[in-house]
Design a protein that fits this description.
170 residues; 5-stranded antiparallel β-sheet; globular; Beta-Lactamase
Length: 170
């Protein structure tokens, strides 16, 4: 399935919507709830078994996904702002919580993500930050964007997770 070209058409997640998906340990979708399916514009059959990055928007800085994977591979949950792309090329912003799923022995068997509407005040902070990170990545690579983000968070005295939670509460 060819990736659509991004458009400027934004869809807003509704306040009471929870977009839920589960993946295996390789990031392939094993479950998608009706709200997630509707928001993406894909059918359930088009989503199941596909890499979760089927909804990745090219305007997302790679450093955010690197950070996300570092956290969940270390068996920690993470909260992150994500701009996703729907099947038609439109986009939507979410505030995502991604959590490892464990078997009875404590081994990771997959990942569970619940997304909700981001605080519009938080997006006023996140959008320019992500634009800056993406610009740095394009000119100097992911290591440079990682350094920029690390320095910003160090200056604020918080982790990315704390930063994202703090601005969600604005």
């Amino acid at each position: 399935m060819a990736q659509p070209l991004p458009t400027s058409r934004e869809t807003t997640v509704q306040q009471d919507d929870f977009l839920v998906s589960k993946t295996d340990t390789k990031g392939r979708i094993t479950y998608a709830n009706p709200s997630f399916i509707k928001m993406t514009g894909f059918s359930e059959a088009e989503l199941l078994g596909k890499p979760h990055n089927i909804v990745r928007h090219p305007a997302m800085p790679k450093i955010i996904f690197k950070l996300l994977w570092e956290e969940i591979l270390n068996k920690r949950e993470i909260f992150a702002y994500v701009q996703n792309m729907s099947k038609d090329g439109g986009f939507y912003w979410v505030y995502a919580n991604v959590t490892p799923s464990f078997d009875v022995r404590g081994s990771v068997i997959g990942y569970y993500s619940v997304r909700r509407k981001p605080n519009p005040k938080a997006l006023e902070i996140i959008k320019p930050l992500y634009e800056k990170l993406l610009s740095i990545e394009k000119s100097s690579g992911i290591e440079a964007s990682s350094k920029y983000l690390d320095e910003l968070l160090k200056e604020k005295g918080v982790s990315y997770d704390e930063f994202s939670n703090n601005i969600q509460r604005l």
